[in-house]
Amino acid sequence: EANEINAAYQRVFKSGLFESVEFDEDDGLLRVIVVEYPTINRIYFEGNIRVEDAALEKVLKSKEKYVLDAQTVEQDRKNIAETYAVMGRLAARVNPKVIRKPENRVDLIFEIFEGGVIEIEKIGIVGNRAFSDRRLRRVLSTKQAGLFRTFVRSDTFVEERIEYDKKVLTDFYTSRGFVDFLVNSVNAELTEERDGYFLVFNITEGQQFAVGDVGVETSLKELNVDEYSEILKVKKGSTYSAKIVELDVERIERLALRNGVDFIRVKPEVTKDSSSLSVNVNYVMDRGPRVILERINIAGNTATLDKVIRRQFRAAEGDPFSARRIRQATDRIRSLGFFETVDVSARQGKAKDSVIVDVSVKEKPTGSV
Questions:
Q1: Are 357 and 297 in contact (CB under 8 A)?
Q2: Do domains 119-204 and 292-363 have the same CATH topology?
Q3: Which residue from 141, 172, 197, 368 has the least number of CB within 10 angstroms?
Q4: CB 48 within 8 A of CB 112
Q5: What is the pLDDT of residue 280?
Q6: What pairs with residue 203 in β-bridges?
Q7: Rounded to an integer, what distance in angstroms lies between the CA atom of residue 48 and that of residue 367?
């Protein structure tokens, strides 16, 4: 019987409907005493100056007129702190507070200490031989804090920007023949005053490679291999560039489209020969899936016009869909320098052979902070 009571208690408690559950047995009579979770009456923010209430409300899972849940409130606290972290305010603190009201209602208050902006005091690069620190720093979107402030800040510590910079460095080196380039780590260390960071990129450059043999092949009879070989910019003996290979892929696909051959996909097969420090490139042309770009949705931009973002896709609604082009467009949007975060995703459209692309951006704050 005791086991049955304990099992019943666990079922009631794990239902998640009650804040507390008590079982009281007296003379064979079992009473179950429960206290329901309170309902959220109002949600308030206190201490926020840099971020408006409306922006913070968007990251909340807790809602007015819904039941208060401690785990949800904790996630809300983290989401608010992350909102400030994206702005470079890593020292921001968020303290949720519950004020009891009559009729089992509560007011939920998020007390916010915004803290200061954490700046990048110095950027160092370890492992570079072919290019100077100064040259590589010019490539990065993250900048050292300087004497004069720009209107759009890029000298604040933002983790997503640093992840993007790892890719930017990789693209820089691989477009100059360093096919084995690697960002080993990025170390961030707080200054003694805890108001800034020293940022160090640890890299391995590797050897510089030249282009070896270059070829084009396909099993499709309607394609003339010689015609497509003539438009290639990758030439034997030149410094290998992953960027130029990528542009060649675009050239081949565009020429196929002009020739009336739709949905061609080009896969560059790259073979490295370490003994001769050369890279052989073979462009394989094949027929891809027949998928159409139904539309592009854009959200989160307030100061930046939709057409500025759409222009980066270099494709119109109704064109053949290419995942590679979407990835390239994402990089171009990030490189505009207007946004703190850029998220691009694809989902099935109204038809099985159509795709909708969703673009969500968060613009950088403007003005001095």
A1: yes
A2: yes
A3: 368
A4: yes
A5: 97
A6: 183
A7: 17
Which residues of the chain are modeled with pLDDT < 50?
146-157, 367-369
25 and 5 in contact (C-beta within 8 Å)? yes
Query: What is the distance between the alpha carbons of residues 95 and 236, in angstroms, rounded to a whole number?
Result: 62
Q: Please, what CATH class does the domain formed by 210-287 belong to?
A: alpha beta
CATH number of 119-204: 3.10.20.310
Q: Can you give the pLDDT at residue 317?
A: 83
What is the spatial distance between Cα 75 and Cα 154, in angstroms, rounded to a whole number? Answer: 28
Residues forming beta bridges with residue 26, ordered by sequence position:
29
Q: Is the pTM of this model over 0.70?
A: no
Residue 239 burial (C-beta neighbours within 10 Å; 0-12, 13-18, 19+): middle
Domain 292-363 homologous superfamily, CATH: membrane protein fhac (3.10.20.310)
CA distance linking residue 342 with residue 331, whole number of Å: 9
pLDDT at 324: 79
Domain ranges of the chain: 2-36, 39-113, 119-204, 210-287, 292-363
**185 exposure class (CB count in 10 Å sphere: 0-12, 13-18, 19+):** exposed
With CA atoms as reference, report the closest residue to 329 among 344, 346, 340: 344
CATH T-level topology, domain 39-113: Ubiquitin-like (UB roll) (3.10.20)
Nearest to 73 by CA among 48, 49, 108: 108
pLDDT at 316: 82
